[in-house]
Specification:
The structure holds 2 protein chains of 2 kinds. Chain A is an alpha/beta fold. Chain A is built from 10 helices and 5 strands. By secondary structure, chain B is mostly helical. The chains are: A alpha/beta, B mainly alpha.
Chain lengths: 154, 81
């Protein structure tokens, strides 16, 4: 199973939201592949640049990537998913299209996010098969419990 | 890296958790599983320490708004390439 985590999940995980922490630990523990994209890495880098002193932000990003690297991680490059961006733009805001485009890849099973406006409560998206890939941390953990003993992981 | 041997006591529940991971094929042995969980905990602790340095009073709403602004910026930069 492969999942993309929205940037807001990583940042919330590291800041204050315990459910998101539990989610990342669960993914690592279950051997579920976390899919990162170059776009998400750039967002993380920007976030750390804003929040830390110059000598600290690189270390923060490095530690996060190392931590994720204790599990299964795959990085998708822009040229692997950007051909879906036009289609993704029809379903969400322009700036959120790269994330949705990566979630459209056949080998990506889920997109987990905290963004209600762009994804979770986006009616246009919810009405499509792609909408079934989109979960909040809470709904994903509940979904995982139901499928864990059913169809299994790939 | 040279390894030391030690005896540890685990609860039945902890041992069955480790054994389950070995049965699932995630780890070749109990030792490897325990070493990996320790490594994760060490990294997480280091990550938490560094994240405290960037701590602010920002609440969830402010955080999500800031991330939206960052996304806008990254998207513009990427699209202009």
């Amino acid at each position: 199973m492969k999942v993309i985590l929205d940037t807001n999940i990583y940042i919330a995980t590291m800041r204050f939201i315990n459910l998101d922490r539990m989610l990342i630990w669960k993914l690592l523990e279950e051997g579920i592949t976390i899919v990162l994209t170059d776009f998400i890495i750039e967002e993380l880098r920007e976030n750390f640049r804003e929040k830390y002193k110059p000598e600290e932000w690189g270390r923060a990003l490095d530690l996060l990537l190392k931590f994720l690297g204790t599990g299964y991680v795959e990085v998708k490059r822009w040229d692997e998913y950007s051909y879906h961006i036009e289609e993704a733009r029809k379903l969400t805001n322009e700036k959120d299209a790269p994330l949705l485009a990566a979630a459209m890849l056949d080998d990506v099973d889920f997109l987990i996010t905290r963004d209600k406006k762009a994804f979770l409560e986006n009616e246009k998206l919810r009405g499509t098969p792609l909408g079934r890939k989109v979960h909040s941390p809470q709904s994903f953990l509940a979904h995982l419990r139901t499928i864990q003993y059913g169809i299994g992981f790939r | 890296m040279p390894m030391e041997t030690l005896q540890i006591r685990l609860s039945r529940e902890q041992l069955s958790f480790i054994d389950q991971k070995v049965r699932e094929g995630r780890y070749p042995s109990r030792s490897e599983a325990i070493r990996d969980y320790l490594r994760k905990a060490q990294l997480w602790e280091a990550l938490e320490r560094i994240l405290e340095l960037g701590h602010s009073e920002e609440d969830e709403e402010d955080l999500l708004a800031r991330l939206e602004r960052i996304r806008e910026k990254v998207y513009k930069e990427r699209s202009s390439k």
